[in-house]
Amino acid sequence: MTSDKGNKLARALPRTSVNDKLGTDARLDSGSQKRIGDQLRAMYDELMQQPVPERFRELLDQLEKKKDGAQ
């Protein structure tokens, strides 16, 4: 009985694409773009200051050894 209800609900909802709802002219003003860019740069800079985890170093070393062995 639950599956019948679900099927009826699914058919009752109109099928529209995301583009139909959002439109194609969505824009940010230059001030908003600058703020977002500044925040992304700050987050990226902070991320780049963090050390590489030891497990990642081990994986990179393994890949490098395989690469050297394949040449």
- Major sheet description: none
Radius of gyration: 25 Å
Helix content: over 70%
Element order, helices and strands? HHHH
Structure class: mainly alpha
Number of helices: 4
Name the average pLDDT. Answer: 80
Strand content: under 5%
- Give the termini separation: 63 Å
How would the global form be characterised?
Answer: flat
Low-confidence stretches: none
Counting DSSP E segments of at least 2 residues, the number of strands comes to 0
Protein name: Anti-sigma factor NepR domain-containing protein
Domain Anti-sigma factor NepR: 33-66
Region (Disordered): 1-33
Short description:
With 71 residues, the chain is mostly helical.
Write the SSE topology.
Blueprint: H1 2-12, H2 18-22, H3 30-49, H4 54-70
